[in-house]
Design brief:
Blueprint (H helix, E strand, L loop, with lengths): L3 E5 L3 H13 L3 E5 L2 H10 L4 E5 L7 H10 L5 E5 L5 H10 L3
Parallel strand pairs: 1-2, 1-3, 3-4
Helix pairs in contact: 2-3
């Protein structure tokens, strides 16, 4: 069975690049632009991994991670960013703990 991965990013090039790379590796990939849509997909379907951008207009990747953990949605999470942000590093370590 191929791993199912949900990619959330507000940048089309990033979404499609991740899709291409992951599908080439045999993963089943779904991409969405809006983290609220991602939450709906996570609640209604099973994914082994969520890859999310840190900075998005509707909701940050850490807010999304917090909801995923609070609702005990069973999937791994990777938060990506193209920006250096020291406070984000501290939140990343806290947000990933169970």
């Amino acid at each position: 069975m191929n791993p199912r991965i949900l990619v959330v990013d507000d940048t089309p090039l990033t979404r499609e690049t991740l899709r291409l790379v992951l599908e080439t590796d045999g993963c089943e990939v779904e991409v969405v632009e809006d983290p609220r849509v991602a939450l709906d997909r996570l609640r209604s379907s099973s994914f082994q991994l969520l890859i999310t951008d840190y900075r998005m207009p509707e909701m940050s990747g850490f807010e999304l991670l917090s909801i995923v953990r609070e609702e005990k949605i069973p999937c791994g999470v990777i938060v990506l960013t193209g920006h250096g942000d020291p406070p984000a590093r501290a939140r990343r370590h806290e947000g990933g703990r169970r």
